[in-house]
Amino acid sequence: HAGYSYSGPAAAYAYKSLDLSKCKRIFLLGPSHHLYLPTCALPLTSLKTYSTPLGPIPLDTSTLSTLRSTNEFSVLPLDADEAEHSLEMHLPYIRHLLSLSSSPSSTKDDFEGLIPILIGNTTPSTERKYGNLLAPYLSDPENIFIVSSDFCHWGTRFGYTYYLPSSSTTSSTTSPSATDLSSGLSLHPKTHKTPPTDPANHESIGTLDRACMEAIESGSHERFLKVLGETGNTVCGRHPIGVVMAGLEGVLRDEVGKEGRGVDEGQGGKRGRFRFVRYERSSEVRRVGESSVSYASAFAVL
After folding, report:
1. Assign residue 238 a region: left if phi > 0, alpha if psi is -120 to 50, beta otherwise?
2. b/e string for 43-65 if b means 16 or more Cβ within 10 A?
3. 23, 58, 276, 279 — which has fewest CB within 10 A?
């Protein structure tokens, strides 16, 4: 959800994977950058549409009302809503895809609306609570969930300069699963004036991101949290990702025994698991004084 010149291509890979033919509702989950929240928030009841340069997107006021009735959601103030780019940057993509299924000036005839949810600084247990609350919506084939997140924000201006030297690798493979993720160190411009080369800084950032991506692809919310805890990787959408991962785990867990299949059955054992289709960085960092932001896109099908 950075500027389109940075994150736009990566996001487009995920949107190209979307099939809106059966879609009636789109849930858009993004992290809060301007409003401190320990929980999650929904837009004001007075809002009926979101505006985009391509035309308006209606909000699903009925589903939003149902979610509000749980008393589990805070109210997203209008000023914070207008300032929140993690939701805003996705709206033109959504509007464009909806227009492809109808006339250019309107959305799909059977589209009931968008459900924006701002996710705060949630604890693991809170993520599981909201995941369980949203699980029935996740399991509905007429719903699509979009999760907004950038990946590693690396550099002193982000307060994150974690580096994994080659000595962290526990085998000859370069897979993050073969790396001791907790054995890295934070680089400082005054004490690390010479750029690291074994590996180069940007290669270490790639390992940090791939560790998170592998954890997300595993389908284990706990594993994702473990990697974040070991590396401190600054994945800004880690909380909405966690909510959806917990929700998917809940859906698959509830289905065990109901249809005579296990959690990992279906779609070659990948049902309900994310598959990453694109990864890139804004720059290839070498020196400590430089910075970059990573972007990745993935999709999952239940």
Report:
1. alpha
2. beeeeeebebebbebebbbebbe
3. 58
